[in-house]
Amino acid sequence: MVIKVFLASSSGSTAIKKKQQDVVGFLEALKVDYTQLDIACNEDNRMWMRQNVPTEKKPTNGIPLPPQIFNEESYCGDYDTFFDAKEDNSVYEFLGLPPPPGSKRARAEEEEEQQEEADEDREEEELRQLEDEEEAEVQEEEEEDVEETQEEEAE
Asked: 8: which DSSP letter?
């Protein structure tokens, strides 16, 4: 999975430049594998980005501004949604990536999986116990029936 960040290398807007730097700098700090795709110098990149940003995520003028972030072909979001994910410590989820090994989130997911496995094991054990109890009851009833039959025959 490669994260694609669509940028404009020659933007006249300092706000856009700062947003682009923020995204790229943060991805580099996290050591996330990503590719920068320039929409200012490459018409194919610009058209692909514009076509693949979901309609509901486009601004009222219909032209999404950089940076726009994708995981392969899947749209992740723009700067604002990236910023929100950064604030919530959920950038990996935002990018559609698993948390890095050893991170708090990875440990929490691992603990959750272990708890689920333990719950499943406990449920299986309870089912086995119930089946054993039912089997014992059936055997007991059969033995009682045999005893009753033997007593009736003896009379």
From this structure: -
If the chain, 155 residues long, is cut into consecutive pieces of 10 residues, what is the mean pLDDT of each piece? 91 92 95 94 95 90 92 96 94 90 64 78 86 85 79 73
Total Cβ atoms within 10 A of residue 129: 10
Taking the C-alpha atoms of residue 122 and residue 15, their distance in angstroms, rounded to an integer, is: 56
Tell me which residue of 153, 40, 31, 154 sits closest to 103, measured CA to CA: 31
Residue 130 to residue 124: CA distance in whole angstroms: 10
What's the order of all strands across the beta sheet hosting 3-7? 34-38, 3-7, 68-71, 74-78
Is 0.90 surpassed by the pTM of this model? Answer: no
Three-class secondary structure of residue 54 per DSSP: coil
